[in-house]
Design goal:
568 residues, Gyrase A, domain 2, Rossmann fold, Isoleucyl-tRNA Synthetase, Domain 1, 3 domains, 13 strands, 53% helix, globular
């Protein structure tokens, strides 16, 4: 619809005495059906023109109608201070369908030449701890944003900021030496290390000395003790191997696997720079930055035993990334519980005079759960993501075997549908909202679910296989008559708008919502309009809509990382 917004701006710009680009920014999508395809609100002009929005809208419409409308605009109406523009569906189809039907490549992919660099940090699980269902949100949201930014022409650096440093490793090393020396870590190492970590916290309740031992162990690690470092390296290697298998299942890749330890060599210089700017003070042996004047409390950068904290490593990481990539933007996809941390981080960067402090963005999100109790690695009440994926696959396989027992490749299809169910459930609501997964809801082939999208795509592919005539190169779009045809054509034109909203708000929800609405439009069209047994002009026109819709859905689902099986 970008072309239509420009056309409307050309009509309004001389009447309003405003630049074309300013008017184009004011043209919006109506919230309700029946209010046109595009609209201009006249309320912002009331003070300048000294008229009511209703009068302004009426006058503008009267002036527009003095001349014939452009062919792409069917009619113009005013209502309650708005000017509503209705797009000519036949002309719209002529303009968009050739593009949607011309290639198997993703629709609307922007030229990456002279791309702006953006760093996206996401997933970031902790070493030697399970990859829980809670980690799915950061991983999925970050992967979606990475794909969409790349599709929109950005140069993306995907960073997995692994939690591979900190006092928790002192705890794990202590636990391993006390109770884990006989463990065989060649199989299920994360499960076994996790049990040690949970046991440490349970034992600590009756033996407070364990925490001192853990602090000493981490201090030895930071000091470079060979034995301690060897254990830490072993824990990291086992964990990375298991994580990589899970990322492969999710279809997620990274450009850089840089944990917190990667930035430790840059911490001494960071402290020098902070001291030169008189930002760091000593308080009871700890190194702190006082942010109380900014209503952000105190940021502790180094404990009294000289062990660092993760805000220190985040500061070093931010500077290293800017020096390396000269990024236009840097996005942290991290849960909402870390809001205070990022407020402190960005404020310290500003106080340091970092040129990029205002290019850093915190993309937060709510929690994900299967039950009422909040998950905690210390308590051990964690739902492993690998177990969730396995359970989802089992449930989907049962459905397939009951409804289509002769389907080939059932297990592979079950994996694709299970993954689609989980990934879509994650982005089906705004990221800031908490999500509670329910098996019956997310695995349903009806309603607003991933399997519903996938099944509808399979239906499109089935129609395409059955249509053996081949699409005509000259489609008669004047055949568009049914309301369901017209609505589907208009819906197909909004993919670019949905992607722009994702970028504007860092919110994959907008693409998921668009795909659901498009699929629902298609299914209404499919139920109302016969396709394969129609005369050639009508059959070709309707099949062009099927093929175009399939291409749009395929493009969108690929950007969301949701598989698109050909059969189900």
């Amino acid at each position: 619809m970008r072309h239509h917004q420009n056309t409307i701006a050309s009509l309004l710009s001389p009447l309003l005495g405003l630049p074309h680009e300013d008017v184009a920014k004011l043209i919006e999508v109506p919230q309700k059906n029946g209010q046109g395809d595009l609209a201009l609100a006249c309320f912002s002009f009331a003070k300048t023109l000294k008229q009511s929005p209703q009068i302004i809208a009426q006058n503008l419409v009267q002036n527009i109608q003095k001349n014939p409308l452009p062919p792409e605009i069917e009619k113009v109406q005013c209502e309650s201070g708005y000017i509503n523009f209705f797009v000519n569906a036949s002309e719209l189809a002529k303009s968009i369908l050739p593009t949607l039907l011309s290639s198997d490549q993703p629709i609307g992919k922007k030229d990456p030449n002279n791309a702006k660099p953006i760093v996206i940090e996401f997933s970031s699980p902790n070493i030697a701890k399970p990859f829980s269902i809670g980690h799915l949100r950061s991983t999925n949201l970050g992967a979606c944003l990475s794909r969409i930014y790349m599709h929109q022409g950005w140069s993306v650096e995907r960073i997995n900021h692994l939690g591979d440093w900190g006092t928790q490793f002192g705890k794990l090393i202590t636990a391993y030496k006390l109770w884990g020396l006989d463990l065989d870590l060649s199989s299920e190492p994360i499960d076994k290390l996790f049990k040690l970590y949970v046991r440490f916290h349970k034992e600590e309740e009756s033996n407070p000395d364990l925490l001192d031992q853990a602090r000493q162990a981490f201090a030895k690690l930071e000091a470079g003790d060979q034995e301690t470092h060897k254990l830490w390296t072993m824990f990291c290697d086992f964990t990375k191997k298991e994580f990589q298998q899970l990322y492969a299942q999710l279809g997620v890749t990274f450009d850089h696997l840089w944990g917190e330890s990667f930035y430790m060599p840059h911490v001494p210089q960071l402290f020098e720079d902070l001291r030169s700017k008189h930002l760091v003070f000593q308080d009871q042996g700890a190194q702190i930055i006082d942010l109380k004047d900014h209503k952000l409390g105190v940021a502790v950068l180094q404990k009294g035993d000289e062990s660092s904290l993760y805000i220190t490593r985040d500061l070093a990481a931010a500077r290293y990334r800017f020096d390396t990539f000269d990024f236009e933007r840097m996005i942290y996809v991290v849960g909402s519980e870390q809001a205070h941390h990022f407020q402190q981080l960005f404020k310290i960067l500003e106080l340091m005079g970092a040129a990029f402090f205002d290019r850093c963005e915190y993309v937060n999100f709510g929690q994900i759960s299967f039950g009422k109790e909040k998950m905690s690695t210390r308590k051990g009440n964690v739902v492993f993501l690998k177990d969730v994926l396995s359970r989802a696959q089992e449930e989907v396989l049962k459905v397939i075997q009951s409804k289509n027992p002769d389907l080939k490749g059932q297990e592979d299809i079950a994996k694709q549908v299970a993954l689609g169910a989980l990934l879509y459930a994650d982005i089906s609501a705004r990221r800031i909202k908490n999500i509670k997964f329910d098996w019956d809801d997310i695995l349903s082939f009806e309603g607003e679910t991933g399997p519903y999208l996938q099944y509808s795509y399979v239906r499109m592919q089935s129609l395409i296989r059955k249509f053996d005539q081949g699409l005509s190169s000259e489609l008669n779009m004047d055949e568009l008559k049914e309301p369901e045809e017209i609505k589907l054509v208009k819906q197909l034109a909004w993919l670019e708008h949905a992607l722009e909203k994702v970028i504007e708000h860092n919110e994959p929800f907008f693409l998921g919502k668009y795909l659901m609405e498009t699929t629902q439009c298609f299914n209404k069209f499919y139920q109302k309009c016969r396709i394969l047994d129609q005369a050639a002009p009508t059959a070709h026109m309707r099949m062009s809509l099927v093929c175009a819709t399939a291409h749009v859905i395929k493009t969108g689902l690929d950007l969301l990382g949701i598989p698109t099986p050909e059969r189900m």
